[in-house]
Structures are given as structure tokens and as C-alpha cells.
């Protein structure tokens, strides 16, 4: 799988001046069929205790829409009423899933993310094509050290 490193919002020289070996913010953009791995190992390491990890499943809204529209009738008015009723009965977890997906989509646009999976470190560096957090962090650290991964 091809890895592409992209510097967001500043030049490589500026990013290197402000770089830390351990990122403070890690944002993962993925879907439910491409789950993130390595989260538990990272959260157990003392070096990452101050790091914030946000995982955005970009297909969250589509999954809820599929749930709302399941087994609808051919009658548009009846279907409209059924969907409205289902929407009103959504659980807090479903609503949170939709909100996180919307937030993830907005952030992906803000960062210029054009494919997934993608991991953004401190809002500056993106690693594409990985779902293993540990491996992505190794590439990130190697890049910060000036080595090609």
C-alpha cells in the first residue's frame, strides 16, 4: 500500500521547528470496514498519555440513513412518516455517531484529506493508507527525524 506524506498548513521547515517526537493530537479518518488498530498499545505507553486521539468513522451518517430507510414502502407519504418516526426514536449513540461523522467530514475537508484511511498528526502531517496507529506513528517519527519511511 502506498504511503503518502503531506505537510498541511505550513512548510516542512516550519513544521520541523515546532515538531515534537510524540504528537499531541492524532486524528484518524476511516470507515467502519477499515477499523483502527494499535489504539490500546499506544494508550498504555506513558509517552502518549498527554496525546489526544480522535477517530472519525466517515460512513457514520450513511449507516444511520440505511437504518432509517430499511424496508420502506413504495408509498412516499407513508415512507416519510416511518422515517420521521424512526428518526425521533434514534438512540443517543446513533445521534453521537452521526455527529462525529459530520465533524470528521468537515475536518477532512478543512485538512484537504482526499482519501481514507488517513491519520493527521498535530494538524500538520498526514499519513495515508494505514489503519495501524503504531505503524503510522513509526512513519511519523521517522519523517520527523528526517528519514524516509
Blueprint (SSEs and pairs):
Elements: E1 5-7, H1 12-17, E2 25-30, H2 39-44, E3 52-57, H3 60-69, H4 76-88, H5 92-111, E4 118-121, E5 125-128, H6 133-144
Parallel strand pairs: 2-3
Antiparallel strand pairs: 1-5, 2-4, 4-5
Subunit organisation of the chains: single chain
CATH hierarchy class name: Alpha Beta
> What summary fits the major beta sheet?
5 strands, mixed
Per DSSP, the total helix count is 6
Under CATH, the topology can be stated as: Glutaredoxin
Show unreliable segments.
Answer: 7-20
Task: Give, in order, the helices and strands.
Answer: EHEHEHHHEEH
With strands numbered from the N-terminus, the spatial order across the biggest sheet is: 1-5-4-2-3
- Class by SSE composition: alpha+beta
Report the strand count: 5
Query: What is the C-alpha radius of gyration, as a whole number of Å?
Result: 19 Å
Describe this structure in words.
This protein is of the alpha+beta class and 149 residues long. Helices cover 45% and strands 15% of the residues. It has a single domain, classed as Glutaredoxin. A hairpin with a 3-residue loop joins strand 4 (118-121) and strand 5 (125-128). Mean pLDDT is 83; it is low at 7-20.
Q: How would you describe this structure in keywords?
A:
single chain, 149 residues, alpha+beta, Glutaredoxin, five-stranded mixed β-sheet, 6 helices, elongated
Summed up, what is this model?
This protein has six helices and five strands.
